[in-house]
């Protein structure tokens, strides 16, 4: 499975929600609705944190978890 497919699907899934969805990788914060940002950040084997805020945050977290899991990407949902 190519990383490109993962990036496109992550971005498309995030774009369905009005919530802010931000991926933290090390000290970088990336808006997952930005395909370009994902391309420069999403490299294999790294652990990511996903920060989701907004009116549909619960649905967004569930959908994003499923996409990350589908591509075996290690992501931790952060709930503030």
UniProtKB/TrEMBL annotation:
Residues 9-69 form the HPr domain. Pfam families: PTS-HPr (PF00381). This is HPr domain-containing protein.
